[in-house]
Amino acid sequence: MAVKENKMGVLPVKRLIISxxxxxxxxxxxxxxxxxxxxxxxAQIDEAALTAVTLAFPLQNLMIALGSGTGVGMNALLSRSLxxxxxxxxxxxxxxxxxxxxxxxxxxxxxxxxxxxPFIRTQTxxxxxxxxAVMYLRIICCMSIGLFCQMSFERMLQSTGRTVFxxxxxxxxxxxNIIMDPILIFGLFxxxxxxxxxxxxxxxxxxxxxxxxxxxxxVKKNKDINIKxxxxxxxxxxxxxxxxxxxxxxxxxMSIGSIMTYAMNLILTTFSTTATAVFGVYFKLQSFFFxxxxxxxxxxxxxxxxxxxARKKQRIEEALRFAMQLAVTIMVAGTITFLVIPQxxxxxxxxxxxxxxxxVPALRIICLSFPVAGVCIALGSVFQAFSESIYxxxxxxxxxxxxxxxxxxxxxxxxxxxxxxxxFPIAEIASFILSIYFFKKVYGKKVKTIIEADx
Length: 455
Description:
By secondary structure, this protein is mainly α. It contains 18 helices and no strands. The chain has one domain (11-447).
């Protein structure tokens, strides 16, 4: 009996990209919304609470890096295996990832118990900020099982083209977070006011519910994979190796973001804690534009990987071209928004006059890098889909460690805080140059092979 072709190999490319990416873009917009809402509510407590959440972000991002990178490795292997009709291997990829997910949780549970307070104390000596940050981060780490499971189950749905179910999982978790934030932070409906601890609990509650929904959809609706305990607890070394061959560069690439934000916190604290809070606000606000582009990227990767496995060159080219146009359009919209209404954006976070004075030029300067970043993200999807994530790692190291942090530190020596923000556009230009160079190298090698084999 003939095997039915997956839609990623036959659906018109533009329609496929929209159907794969739009649900992810919408769900990531909701994710961005609840990240912003989280900080908006926390900012109502006081500026110290907002600063505390900013200082917690590098370790939070490291947790996301580990879960997401594992998912990226699984995503590429699972999609390619489906394209090659190797269904036993695609099942092994999914089930092995579940075991790796629980191992990731154990690592961060231990960090939550033993490592949170020493980490925060390296960034500040303010006792109120330390108390807020430790309380928030300890809950996030010790209850991170929901985060890790939610990311893995969503990646499985994305890998098989079921992005609507992935969207349902992510959006449900985000909506629960948004609803529970004010209830737990301010003590509504007779509950005690928990402050920043309430914000953390609302976050993990949303993640756990999202994970449960993702598991349900994979078991009941995802016919391309079979989740079985016998496969989960019988991992194959070659599957683990292949997942992390793609996944480790992605983990390291995202972890570099943690190093960058940690270093920027240290640089900005030399000016004031308000400058650090502004940096945290920027990261929340930019997610409204970056998260949809990452959603587009997540939808694009399995399309590219599947069609590489199926050896369909024209579909690869059309998918990448269309996705890049969408990414740049979104980022241009972000630049215009930050340039035109920075005061309105800052008021959402209960910004003081001092915070507004620092934040307006910061947002206007940093946003100039957005369109170039859109191109770099789209090109990075090629490296991940074609199992060449090492190039994404090199680009990320170049942008954030080789250029951004040293330039920001040098500009901070001028004593002018506004000069520090120019490090972001400078670093993005460096990222663009590296991305173009590696894209030509990887794409030429992979696509030329297809032409020689098929023509």
